[in-house]
Design a protein that fits this description.
Blueprint: E1 8-13, H1 19-26, E2 32-38, H2 42-51, E3 56-58, H3 60-65, E4 71-74, H4 78-90, E5 94-97, H5 105-118, E6 122-124, H6 132-142, E7 149-157, H7 177-181, H8 183-194, E8 197-205, E9 210-212, E10 222-224, E11 230-237, E12 242-248, E13 255-263, E14 266-270, E15 280-284, E16 291-293, H9 304-315, H10 323-342, E17 346-347
Parallel strand pairs: 1-2, 1-4, 2-3, 4-5, 5-6, 7-12
Antiparallel strand pairs: 7-13, 8-11, 8-17, 9-10, 11-12, 13-14, 14-15, 15-16
Helix pairs in contact: 4-5, 5-10, 8-10
Bound molecules: nicotinamide-adenine-dinucleotide.
Length: 369
């Protein structure tokens, strides 16, 4: 697939809840050509293709057989991520996958190996750190506005995951729970601020082991929660700082997107790492008030990581939401799970580089290819 020019052909696999946001955005980026939507349930794929003016819909096999599809966007459920990404890589496609990268660490390693051997790219959500909110905050940290980074506090507390999700039980089972579903946003943001994690320790509980589906034909049906739903984490970063994080789906209080990074000279309030925009605020040592900092850059929403891969392919440069980053985030989450089991600090063995910032004039809606 080398030597191609112009817009990059894209396929979406998984026509569920999040595909609406993705398709809305991917079809508006002039550098991408969304060619086909696929799902195990072909009627869902057809419905989403029609809603967003995508010319074709069909099966995973249809996607893999389409020579003009260069990037497969994997929006399936977490336990299908590995299988679908591996199939796409084996077919010579580049891959953008929703988080988590995979559910097991060896799956993450196999994905990276397969991409390296095939000479294809793999990238993984979240791409929120490429939005104007986090890019502005990260730029201030990089420029030394808070002094030497010392620590971070992150809080995510809600009563539970999306009550309107028709597959609610999938969010409270293997590969999900706040640790796998939500932590990727916070860990990725912290890695962009501090660099890679060195070690973690954690404690957790599941306050409500039985929950009920709240919408759709199965409303009222109870299921067993098989993952911890309240996790408290301490992390030590290779470069020196530490972080304290709470991830809870057991809290009547709804407080999410709280990320404060403290340095020797100031604290910065970073916007919600599950969003692309938001407010950046800075409180300097000795100052009475927080100061709001204007955001820089254009907000493209979910899918800008895919677009960055497309542009990186054509420019023959690294993409930002990389496989190495995703593997390190997965390794960190699995290490947190081990720390829960062992009740002790666990060393995070992998490492990764912080991503290059986006150029100030980066515009998802510009035609560049
Ligand atoms: N829903 C959200 O708000 C949200 C937000 C951010 C990220 N995500 C992530 O996006 C992914 C999908 O989430 P969702 O909420 O859209 O889930 P969903 O259950 O609504 O949709 C997943 C779709 O993938 C299809 N699918 C599953 N396995 C498949 C396979 N092997 N082949 C073909 N199709 C398959 C299912 O039929 C379903 O239509 C998850 O990884 C989730 O963490 C979701």
């Amino acid at each position: 697939m080398t030597g191609r020019q112009g817009t990059v052909g894209v396929a979406v696999i998984g026509a569920g809840m999040i595909s609406t946001q993705y398709l809305g955005n991917l079809t508006r980026y002039p550098d991408l050509d969304v060619r086909i939507v696929a799902d195990t349930f072909k009627d869902r794929a057809a419905e989403q293709a029609a809603a967003f003016g995508v010319p074709r819909s069909g099966s995973v096999a249809d996607v893999l057989a389409d020579e003009d599809v260069e990037i497969v966007v994997n929006l399936t459920n977490p336990t299908s991520h590995f299988q679908i990404s591996m199939m796409a890589l084996a077919a010579g496609k580049h891959v953008w996958t929703e988080k988590p990268f995979a559910v097991e660490l060896d799956e993450g390693a196999k994905l990276q190996q397969a991409a390296n051997e095939a000479g294809t790219r793999i990238g993984c959500a979240p791409d929120t750190f490429l939005g104007p909110g986090l890019q502005t905050a990260l730029g201030l940290i990089e420029a030394g506005e808070i002094g030497t980074p010392v620590s971070a506090l992150t809080l995510f507390e809600t009563p539970g995951p999306a009550p309107d999700h028709r597959n609610l039980e999938l969010l409270l089972t293997r590969g999900a729970g706040p640790l796998f579903d939500i932590a990727p946003y916070y860990i990725t943001a912290l890695v962009q601020a501090f660099g890679p994690l060195a070690s973690v320790v954690a404690t957790a509980r599941t306050a409500r082991p039985r929950r009920a589906i709240q919408v759709g034909p199965n409303a009222g049906q109870e299921f067993t929660v098989t993952v911890p739903t309240n996790v408290a984490i301490l992390a030590q970063f290779e470069s020196g700082p530490m972080s304290t994080s709470v991830l809870s789906w057991d809290s009547p209080l709804n407080r999410q997107g709280w990320v404060e990074v403290t340095g020797t000279r100031a604290t910065i309030a970073v916007p919600d790492p599950n969003r692309f925009d938001g407010e950046v605020r800075l409180k300097r040592h000795g100052a009475e008030k927080w100061v709001s900092v204007p955001l820089r850059g254009e907000s493209g929403g979910r899918g800008i990581g895919t677009l960055d891969i497309a542009r990186a392919i054509r420019a023959d440069r690294p993409h930002r939401a990389s496989g190495e980053l995703a593997y390190h985030v997965l390794d960190s989450m699995i290490s947190i799970g081990q720390a829960l089991d062992r009740k002790a600090f666990v060393t995070v063995m992998s490492t990764c580089d912080r991503a290059e910032p986006l150029p100030a004039d980066w515009d998802p809606y510009a035609r560049t290819l």
